[in-house]
Design a protein that fits this description.
Helix 1 crosses helix 5. It is globular, with a radius of gyration of 16 Å. Helix content is 44%, strand content 12%. The protein has five helices and four strands. The longest helix has 20 residues. A four-stranded mixed β-sheet has the order 1-4-2-3. The chain is an alpha/beta fold.
């Protein structure tokens, strides 16, 4: 299904909502991308790799307490739907955060997905808890319609924020800066 929707536009929209809501909770946010422009310079051979390297540089410099990377999913079957959260590997710092987010997103959407491990570049940029949140499937026409809706995006961001805050409360308080 080609919906004509640019994933990068939706990613940025949801990320901006998350930034606003996190900051409303007093949490500092560093965005790796603030505009529609990629971080790769000229769109020549290797631009994707240059973009990812620049993101890693931003993450390493900011020394984050956690990383949430926002994406939209696509799949060969247009019936596949619902947010999917990924973490690097079993036992890593991001696993508990991913499970918390996945459970909250399942409750919000009525899906029953499990958080999954995945070998993704962005998850290897820091030892801090890092997750990829695939907010839904652009290959599913009805879900794509929802993902384009500002109200739905706002609710999605609110679920992610609430889940993060719940996750953070579950952490041992020793040495934690709030």
């Amino acid at each position: 299904v080609n919906t004509g929707v640019k994933e990068s536009d939706l990613n940025l929209s949801v990320s901006r909502l998350l930034k606003e809501q996190f900051e409303n909770c007093g949490i500092t946010v560093v965005m790796t991308r603030k505009t529609k422009d990629g971080l790769y310079g000229t769109a020549t051979s290797g631009f994707k790799r240059r973009d990812m390297e620049k993101r890693r540089e931003i993450i390493e410099q900011s020394k984050p307490d956690m990383v949430i990377s926002i994406h939209m999913n696509k799949y060969s079957s247009p019936s596949r739907s619902g947010p999917q959260v990924f973490f690097l590997e079993k036992g890593c710092a991001g696993e508990a955060l991913a499970v918390s987010l996945q459970n909250a997103l399942n409750k919000f959407t009525g899906n029953s997905h499990s958080a999954l491990s995945g070998d993704y570049f962005i998850l290897k940029c820091t030892d801090s808890p890092s997750v990829i949140v695939e907010c839904g499937f652009l290959s599913n026409e009805s879900e794509c319609t929802k993902l384009k809706d500002d109200g739905y995006q706002t609710k999605l961001a609110a679920v992610i924020i609430a889940s993060y805050l719940q996750y953070r409360q579950s952490l041992p308080q020793t040495g934690m800066v709030t």
